Amino acid sequence: MTDLAIAANGLRKSYGDKLVLDGIDLAVPEGTIFSLLGPNGAGKTTAVKILSTLLPPDPAGGSIRVGGHDLLTDPQAVRAAIGVTGQFSAVDGLITGEENMLLMADLHHLPKREGRQVAADLLERFGLTDAARKPASTYSGGMKRRLDIAMTLVGSPRIIFLDEPTTGLDPRSRHSMWQIIRELVAGGVTVFLTTQYLEEADELAHRIAVLHDGRIAAEGTAEELKRLVPGGHVQLRFTDPATYQGAVSAFGTASRNDETLTLQVPSDGSQRQLRAVLDRLDSAGIEADELTVHTPDLDDVFFALTGGAAAVPAQNDQPDRPDQPKEAVR
Ligand SMILES: Nc1ncnc2c1ncn2[C@@H]1O[C@H](COP(=O)(O)OP(=O)(O)OP(=O)(O)O)[C@@H](O)[C@H]1O
User: Fold this and answer.
1) Average pLDDT of the residues in 6-34
2) HSE on the CB side for 79, CA within 13 Å?
């Protein structure tokens, strides 16, 4: 079995009589990106705070291991293995980027010379060398986030918690953050990512868990999650009306558009179902002019799982999303 960077069983947390996490299980293999998705207030930040030792779980909860260490009996060892960048940045705007880095080096008790070297290397890696001597308050949002992550890396953490790292960033800065996250993982770091952007989880995460009503409503790869909701289909387009009519006869149950000469055959996007469509075309001696596979996107999954909660904006906000009746999965 792959070693787990994070293993939680029955993680519970209440604030007073408000139950936020109702015994969730998490298993994050080393060197992977795990994304926790959920609407506002679902408990994502609470989970990050608990896993990073900033908040105690409820005593009745199960075992939690982070970086191979027991969170309750060995929180110091957990802290030594992790880095956290939250929604509220650790960057001090009154001092320069370089001074922020050197402060972190001091906190990690690095010898002066090594601290300066590590700071310079990380500032370089995150494209902040030119701005290093300027007060961090003059940095753009993207530069501050990069500095924040660079500061987290001073301690060489093996596991990094990124709580909504791209919220409020413009598309270019968001893409540059994605690149940074990919490079971290390529270097063996494990990333626990919370995000409001479904596209972000889709882009980055090896596995995604959707948090809803205190529980994990579904977990899997982006592709596995997309297969949980209806809406996938293979679209066949024709230019010749006679061929189109032949296809209509061959695919009795497909929905049809006689004007555009297209057929939509329900499909989960799997290889097996795609082959069945191709086999049926072949045996009817029909060749489509265009064949495209449409799988539901993570938005569909999210809305299905969280009962249509409109709290999570997609990357390109979709305020006019039509109400689509969707089945809850679990
Ligand atoms: N210290 C606290 N005391 C009482 N309730 C709290 C506290 N912190 C969080 N909560 C509540 O717990 C729930 C989960 O909050 P949390 O911040 O973990 O959600 P989230 O999924 O991170 O939300 P967001 O996407 O808005 O950041 C919310 O209803 C919140 O109001």
Assistant:
1) 95
2) 10
* Interface predicted TM-score (ipTM): 0.96
d(CA 144, CA 148): 6
* pLDDT for the residue numbered 88: 63
Same domain membership, residue 290 and residue 180: no
HEC sequence for 201-236: HHHHCCEEEEEECCEEEEEECHHHHHCCCCCCEEEE
What predicted TM-score, i.e. pTM, was given to this entire model? 0.76
Domain containing residue 286: CATH number: 3.30.70
Atom index in ligand 1 nearest the CA of residue 47 equals: 18
With 90 as the cut, is the pLDDT of residue 310 above it?
A: no
Predicted local distance difference test score (pLDDT) of residue 308: 53
How many Å lie between the centroid of ligand 1 and the Cα of residue 56? Answer: 14
DSSP secondary structure code for residue 144 in this structure: H
Q: Which residues line ligand 1 (CB under 6 A)?
A: 15, 20, 38, 40-46, 196
Check whether 61 has a pLDDT greater than 90: no
Pair 80, 147 in one domain: yes
**CATH assignment of the domain containing 80:** 3.40.50.300
Q: Which of 18, 35, 212, 312 to mutate to test the pocket of ligand 1 (most atoms within 8 A of CB)?
A: 18
Report the relative pairing of strands 262-266 and 233-237 from DSSP bridges: antiparallel
Residue 247, domain extent: 233-294
The span from the CA of 148 to the CA of 155, in Å, is 13
